[in-house]
Design brief:
The chain is α/β, with parallel strands linked by helices. It folds into 3 domains: 96 residues, Alpha-helical ferredoxin (Fumarate Reductase Iron-sulfur Protein, Chain B, domain 2, Orthogonal Bundle); 90 residues, FAD/NAD(P)-binding domain (3-Layer(bba) Sandwich), CATH 3.50.50; 95 residues, FAD/NAD(P)-binding domain, CATH 3.50.50.60. It has 13 helices and 9 strands. The strands form 3 sheets. It has a 4-stranded parallel β-sheet, sandwiched between helices. Helix 4 packs across helix 6, helix 11 crosses helix 12 and helix 12 packs parallel to helix 13. The structure holds iron/sulfur cluster. The site of iron/sulfur cluster has 14 residues, from helix 2 and helix 3.
């Protein structure tokens, strides 16, 4: 856990801006000036309450959100100097709560409404939906097709980016609110929409972005061309892909960085990221790129993969072209 005095020194720089640009830039509308004000007063429990009241996933968001593009990217302090390190402050408050066994007590809804909702998917959308319904006194059942709960938080984000204990903690809190969770039940196969509509008052589909962005590299389907969701799931299930050899990851976003680092950890001989534009155009967070470089991943910018070739069902070569990044003309 970070040094308390250092955090207090940082927090006092917050200007408590009236128009809250940091808060408005947050997709969850985290009450940034308010929780920082509580840090200034050394009321870390109150800061934690403010964060959790608004967002069950505060701990996860403080770790994996691109703050530099959202809250920190809009911080007034950043106009002339460094923005407030909002993610770091949010992480500190979450670490403090963990270290001090402080639990946020959700407001109990005394009156339980006679309603029941079916939720498909136990990822962040499904869990958030179930918790918000529980706060309103509405019962829900989550149906998950996988063996374990968590969706992208469990199978899509590698453990070196998100500690799975954090997820378990959230799931336990949800269960303690009476939310029922059923695994190994696939929507459209084991249960249909019609069945659910007959049994429940409402159905919420929290199935996430199921189709990864991809393009065809070859007329043949080489088994060693993987889609990112499959690749990351294998790693997260500890069912490592053996003999990866030299591995090429196409793309420049955070998922590409996760795949590249995951390839290294699964034993790839050498891992390259091929990205069609320049480093400054990469959508991945700087920290993700830096950590990939630290892990030994090599980057080839302005490189577009055109075609893949192979022999005996094995990928042997890829054909690339060099690209030129042109400044977009305005006006
Ligand atoms: S914009 Fe920056 S300085 Fe202003 S309230 Fe938000 S965090 Fe504080």
């Amino acid at each position: 856990m970070e040094d308390k005095q250092e955090i207090l020194n940082i927090a006092k720089n917050c200007l408590n801006c009236k128009h809250k640009p940091c808060q408005n830039a947050c997709p969850m509308k985290t009450r940034v000036p308010e929780f920082i004000a509580k840090i200034k007063e050394e009321k870390f429990d109150k800061a934690y309450d403010i964060l959790l009241e608004n967002n069950t996933f505060s701990n996860i968001c403080s770790t994996i959100c691109p703050q530099e593009q959202q809250c920190e990217g809009s911080c007034v302090r950043g106009i002339k100097g460094e923005p407030m390190p909002i993610g770091r402050l949010e992480r500190f408050v979450n670490d403090w709560a963990k270290e001090n066994n402080y639990i946020y007590k959700m407001e109990e809804k005394k009156e339980i409404l006679n309603k029941n909702v079916a939720i498909i998917g136990s990822g962040p959308a499904g869990i958030s939906c179930a918790i918000e319904l529980a706060k309103m006194g509405i019962k829900s059942v989550i149906f998950e097709k996988d063996e374990k709960l968590g969706g992208i938080l469990r199978y899509g984000i590698p453990d070196f980016r998100l500690n799975k204990d954090t997820l378990e903690h959230i799931l336990e809190s949800a269960k303690s609110m009476g939310i029922e969770m059923r695994t190994n039940v696939e929507f459209g196969k084991d249960i249909s929409l019609k069945e659910l509509q007959e049994k429940y008052d409402a159905v919420f589909l929290g199935i996430g972005a199921e189709t990864p962005s991809t393009y065809k590299l070859s007329d043949e389907d080489y088994p060693s061309i993987y889609k990112s969701d499959y690749f990351l799931k294998k790693y997260n299930e500890k069912d490592y892909i053996n003999n990866l050899g030299t591995t090429v990851v196409i793309g420049g976003g955070n998922v590409a960085m996760d795949c590249a680092r995951t390839a290294v950890k699964m034993g790839a001989k050498k891992t390259y990221v091929l990205y069609r534009r320049a480093r400054e155009n990469m959508p991945a967070r700087d920290i993700e790129i830096e950590e990939a470089i630290e892990d030994g991943v090599e980057f080839n910018y302005t490189t577009k993969v055109i075609k893949a070739f192979g022999e005996n069902n094995k990928l042997t070569q890829i054909e690339c072209i060099k690209t030129v990044v042109e400044e977009r003309k305005s006006g």
